[in-house]
Automatic annotation (TrEMBL):
It comes from Enterococcus casseliflavus. One of its GO terms (biological process) is asparaginyl-tRNA aminoacylation. This is Asparagine--tRNA ligase. The gene is asnS. Its main location: cytoplasm. It comes from the Bacteria. Signal peptide: none annotated. The lineage of its organism: Bacteria, Bacillati, Bacillota, Bacilli, Lactobacillales. Belongs to the class-II aminoacyl-tRNA synthetase family.
């Protein structure tokens, strides 16, 4: 007898198989027990008929507690009534691990309760679906960059300086000196691009920002490509191709998860149409002011309501180009005809999900960068290696960073970023 996973049930219709699973829920009548089974790949129904299995097995099935681990034996059948499309007619049942008083029941629970039990909440069908989409985005990311000639480079997590000149860093002792948990691998990826041409990193980053918004995490994952001999417009094309590729792969490979989440596929399909619209920062400010946003002035950074209105005006991901120099990091290339803006772009996701990508063309002039480092009050000795990149064969180069969790949140259609990562780290939460 073959042991299979629930997701592969469609390949075994009419066969008797064995499946290791957990009992997510159950209901029974006098003669039939219906078990909602999950095994980590999918959920489906197991049916136990008293007249077919005998009194002992039927009573065992009727008395199973939520989240009891079982081995079930039975025949795979088509089930046109369920979205999954298949079920198992159970002929044999063995309890592997008992469960008693499982705290997360089918009733409603508060967010704090669920977060305190995140180690168990991950078992629910919605959380399972979100993690499936997260996994597909990760898989598709590697496929996209490998197909397009990028090499993966891993920047350090412990650094001696702040890439973006911020104070929102986690400080630690590195033997006899200070070190920080990385907030971005970008500067190191610039060095890697000078060695390998096209590179990307994929790893954890940390921000000690005391924010409680639905878009912010303390620990999150970033995908950060960097490309030598490339200008900003070419980078924007890579960015939109990459995002459209992610959306298409979620549509192609996450059918079951999208069903569970109730995500409208027609809405997602709009996000595969290229090119994505572009609007300058100047025009974005004017658009907002004309539509009642009296709080925004040129030189301000955009908040969530501003980004939401701009993206919804286009009904697609939209690039906002060339922000004021004063509100962007020191390493961005100055605009060739304007002193007040830099060559950069943020990609804003529609439906209120905000910025998912930030990128720019990088400044390549050694003296300009040295001047900017000093102007930002940074220690130029800490950045001497970064300045070296402008002394030994500097070339035009550009890059961007995509936030994995914000992208998962957007494509899943969920409300809060905390559900997009297995164990979220929030301002007041480091448990479990």
């Amino acid at each position: 007898m073959e042991s299979i996973q629930i997701l592969d049930a469609k390949k075994h219709v009419g066969e008797t198989v064995q499946i290791g699973a957990w009992v997510a829920n159950k209901r029974s009548s006098g003669k039939i027990a219906f078990l909602q089974l999950r095994d980590g790949t999918a959920y489906f129904q197991g049916i136990v008929v008293k007249s077919e299995v005998g009194e002992e097995v039927f009573q065992l099935a009727k008395n199973l507690n939520q989240e009891t681990a079982v081995l079930v034996t039975g025949e795979i059948r088509e089930d046109s009534r369920s979205k999954f499309g298949y079920e198992i007619g159970i002929s044999g049942l063995e309890v592997v691990g008992e469960s008693h008083d499982y705290p997360i029941t089918p009733k409603e629970h508060g967010t704090d309760f669920l977060m305190d039990h995140r180690h168990l909440w991950l078992r629910s069908s919605k959380q399972h679906a979100i993690m499936q989409i997260r996994n597909e985005i990760i898989r598709a990311t590697y496929e996209f960059f490998n197909k397009n000639g990028f090499i993966k480079i891993d920047p350090p997590i412990l650094t001696g300086s702040a890439p973006e000149g911020t104070t929102d860093l986690f400080e630690t002792n590195y033997f006899d000196q200070k070190a920080y948990l990385s907030q971005s691998g970008q500067l190191y990826m610039e060095a890697a691009a000078m060695a390998f041409g096209k590179v990307f990193s994929f790893g954890p980053t940390f921000r000690a920002e005391k924010s409680k918004t639905r878009r912010h995490l303390i620990e999150f994952w970033m995908i950060e490509p960097e490309m030598a001999f490339m200008h900003q417009e070419e980078s924007l094309e890579v960015q939109e191709q990459y995002v459209a590729f992610l959306v298409q792969n979620v549509l192609d490979n996450c059918d079951y998860a999208l069903d569970v989440l109730g995500r409208d596929r027609e809405v997602l399909k709009k996000y595969t149409k290229l090119p994505f619209p572009r609007i300058s920062y100047d025009d974005a400010v004017e658009l907002l002011q004309k539509n009642g946003f009296d709080d925004i002035q040129w030189g301000d950074d955009f908040g969530s309501p501003h980004e939401t209105f701009i993206a919804n005006s286009f009904d697609q991901p939209v690039f906002i180009l060339n922000y004021p120099k004063a509100i962007k990091p020191f390493y961005m290339k100055p605009h060739p005809t304007r002193e007040d803006v830099v060559i950069c772009a943020d990609m804003i996701a529609p439906e209120g999900y905000g910025e998912i990508i930030g990128g720019s063309e990088r400044a390549i002039d050694h003296e300009y960068l040295l001047e900017q480092i000093r102007a930002h009050g940074l220690d130029e000795n800490e950045y001497s290696w970064y300045l070296d990149l402008r002394k030994y064969g500097s070339v035009p180069h550009t890059g961007f960073g995509l936030g994995l969790e914000r992208t998962v949140t957007w494509l899943s259609g969920i409300e809060h970023v905390r559900e997009s990562i297995p164990f979220p780290r929030l301002l007041n939460r480091i448990y479990p």
